[in-house]
Amino acid sequence: PQPIRLAIPQAQKLTESVGMKTIMMEQEEADDIIGTLTKKCIMSNDEIQVKIMSPDKDFYQLIGPKVSILRPRSFHDKSPNSLEVIRGKLVPHVRLDETWFALEYDGIEPQCFVDVLTLLGDKSDNIPGINRVGKVRAKYLVKEFGTIEALMEAWGDGEKRDNFPSYLPKELHFQKDMILLSKQLVALDCELDIPYDLNDLTLEPEM
Question: Is 35 helix (H, G, I), strand (E, B) or coil?
Fold first, then answer.
């Protein structure tokens, strides 16, 4: 959208004015760049703790011992408030970490959130999801089958199909290609070739 295109140079100027680096790569999604940098940070130093500030659910799949999400407070009004000191300023947010994820998603591993979101759908990213499958049902199906692929394989077995929850649409097999494509779109690509060394991205001190 044109308003976003016009805002990008302003956002870049603002972040660079406080010593933060910006990375822009043609034909690559910003989410994938963040995912790749997260993986690089984790692999480069045992002491690095990655904090991703974003309201985007796609990043839940990255949550782990060294990775947490800082979700802006305004997007989660019902959650307890928290404050993070960033460059000497208190920033309100909700911290989403391994403990939060385990409670919110009933012990499902964060890397399996891709399957949960594929079933659930995400209007902001044009992921349609499956009709009549909400958060509770999506979590149940992932816990029961593990992955979308395993669910579709079991659904293809006529004898097993009778044991499936009645809320799943009978025409589910016709949606297989769409469901698998949705999973590809939800999954972050953390293997991009980013032409930056992590040292190049060190936050510069304010002048």
Answer: helix
86 phi-psi bin (left φ>0, alpha ψ -120 to 50, beta other): beta
Q: β-pairing, 67-72 with 50-53?
A: parallel
pTM: 0.83
The DSSP bridge partners found for residue 70 are: 53, 95
State the Cα–Cα distance between residues 2 and 35, nearest whole angstrom: 26
Contact 122, 129 (CB under 8 A): yes
Chain CA centroid to CA 204, Å: 28
Taking every pair of Cα atoms in the chain, the longest distance, rounded to a whole number of angstroms, is 69
> Helix, strand, or coil here: 156?
coil
| pLDDT tens series, the chain, 207 aa | 788 889 989 988 888 888 888 888 989 999 999 999 999 999 987 788 999 989 899 999 999 999 999 988 764 445 544 555 555 555 667 889 999 999 999 889 999 999 999 999 998 888 999 888 899 989 999 998 899 999 888 877 665 666 677 777 766 777 888 999 999 999 999 999 998 888 888 776 655
Which residue in 150, 188, 205 sits closest to 38, CA to CA? 188
